[in-house]
Amino acid sequence: MPDITKVLPDVEVIRRKGENPESMYENLMALRGEHIDRCVLYVFRCAVYFSSNSVHEPELLKWWNWKDGK
Q1: What 3-state class would DSSP assign to 30?
Q2: How confident is the model over 32-56, as pLDDT tens digits?
Q3: Which of 42, 52, 58, 63 shows its CA 20 to 30 Å from the CA of 19?
Q4: Total domain count, the chain
Q5: pTM here?
């Protein structure tokens, strides 16, 4: 998976509350003009979960648990 800080340097997890991870992923690909590894979408899903909840299930803080179909 690419280093998310290099793909999107200004990621601030706290600002992800209530955002749509799929839209974030599509917007990032449009901005960069290239395909971005789908793992970045899973990281976005995890970040939105983290910022939108005050209590977290430890397993849901692992990006790979946000893959499609899980």
Answers
A1: helix
A2: 999 999 999 999 999 889 889 989 9
A3: 58
A4: 1
A5: 0.78
| Amino acid found at 13 | V
Six-digit token string for 3? 């280093």
Please name the amino acid found at residue 52.
Answer: S
Residue 65 makes CB contacts below 8 A (sequence gap 6+) with: 46, 59
| Residue 33 in tokens | 């003009």
Convert the pLDDT of each residue in 2-37 to its tens digit: 555 555 544 565 567 788 999 989 999 999 999 999
CA 7 to chain centre: 11
Judged by DSSP in three states, 33 sits in: coil
What is the domain range of residue 23? 4-66
């692992």: which residue's tokens?
Answer: 62
